[in-house]
Structure formats: C-alpha cells, structure tokens
Write a structure and sequence with these properties.
- With 305 residues, the protein is of the alpha+beta class.
- It is built from ten helices and eleven strands.
Amino acid sequence: MIQAFSEKIFAGSLICLFRIKSSLEKEKAITLFDNDSETELYKHKLTLEKIKKELTNFGLTANQSKVFIYLGKYGSKTAAEISKALQTPRTETYHLVNSLQNMGLVTAELSHPTKYTATEMKQAIETLVKQEQTRINSLAKKEESLSEMWKQVPFFAVETDESKSEKMQLLHGTSPIINKIKEMITSSVEDFKIFGSVSDLQRFYHSDIFDNLKESSAELKLIVSPLTKAPEFLSEIDQKSVRSVPSDSENKCFLINDKKEVLLFMRNANHPTRQTFAWWSDSETLADLMNYLFDLSWEKGDQIY
C-alpha cells in the first residue's frame, strides 16, 4: 500500500513538472518579435521589423531597437518587465536601457523599482541625427591636424621597381562606389565614358554625378542600354553626348576615366538584391579593353533624340 501511494505521488509530481515545463516553454515562445507571437503587436510585425531595421541604420543595435520599440508602444516598464517580455537576460537588459539613456532615447523614473520610458520617435530621430552630425563635425575638424601629423613622419619605403604597379579595389555598397566615381571625375581631363542601364543612370543622377560632370572639363560620352523610354533628366545632357544601343545589356555597367582607370559593376542597380558591388582598377590593359568595347558600342549606337 505504501509503495502504491508513493508511486501515485511520484506520478503526480511528474505530471505537475511536465505542466510547469510546458507552461514555461509556451511563455518563452511568445515574444514581441516572434513569428508565432500572440501579442497585440503581432499584426504589425512586418512594420515593426522595418522600424527595427531603420533604427539600426541610425546606430542602434538590434536589441537596443527592440527595447526602444517595446517601451515606445507599451509605456513605462521596469528592467524585469522588459527582460521577461523580450526574453533577454536581466544583466543585458540593464546594459541596454543604460545605453539608451546615454543616447538620450530613454528616461528613467525616480521610483523603486526604476521604470524606463522611451522618448517620442520624432524626438529620438532628431537626437540621433544631431549626435551623428556632431561626430562628423568633430572628425572634420581633426582632418587638417591629422594630415599635418602624418606629413611629419618620414616615408621609409624603398622603391625597387621603377615600373608602374597596377592597383585594384573592391567596393561594396552605393556610398563607397559613388564616392569613388566622384574621385574619378575630379581627376578626369580628357573624357569620361559611362555605359549603363536607365536604373544605373537614375542612381547616378540622384547622387549628383552628372552635376559633377558638368563642372568637369572632360568630355562626357554616355551609352544607355537598353533604352525603352528616355528619362526626363537625360534631356538636360547634350544630345551629342548620349547614345543608346538596343541590347540585353541591362545588367552591365562600367565607367572609364581618360582611358586610365575603370570602374566595373559586378552587381548594378538592376541586381535582384539591390546591393551594388563594383571593381575598380587602373590597369592599362583593362582600361584599353573596356575603352575599345565602349567605342564599338558608341559607333553602333543611336542618338536618343
């Protein structure tokens, strides 16, 4: 009898433990940004994910963004409540709210336990933008002094080969590529040639590339491929400088500066991922080859107007 009673207690304990485990696992599975979330914000999940991604572009980490969004939509919460809702360790949660306070995005109430409140989104973005502007201005002020210090250190390299060494550079992302193109335009003297799709040219236009070319003394030659409808901004360019070729070259884009350097897009504006990737080189062989290809296309091309 005693053994049967013990077995019943043991079985009851197992059932109880199983229910507690299932309850904990269910609670753990329900988080603010989960696919299986049952929170009130789940129907806005896609929008929240976009907001979180945009906030990371302003310098926040993914977890900082999640904490800020949670406080912004659920109101004042303690670190324990944030930790439980977002399933983040307690120590990490304190670090996150403190870092957000240092950024000016979260305020702490003088209460026990301490409650944290997010600032309005508009105010938060303005704060982040001002901080970034301050950082950039500070770096700009250091540019001259850093250059002077650099000049004070002698150059120790010894050239053993008098022949010109050819260079190359891989460029990821729109910003570094546009900056490189502007550098090429600045050094251009004779001619500057562009071969690309309408999407590529639109990206160049909105990045002020054509404004830079107007200020350059170099002659511009532009080939659009393919061209179904001429965008309005092309009418601002000298008609003699623009031609089109009827081909399936919408994934090809390259630029040539004075037949001395080439920037070739491995992924241009038409790439499905929209993530641009380019390869730059001052190889004379490559520059001659690409220039020959451009000139052949130019001879076969038609004026767009």
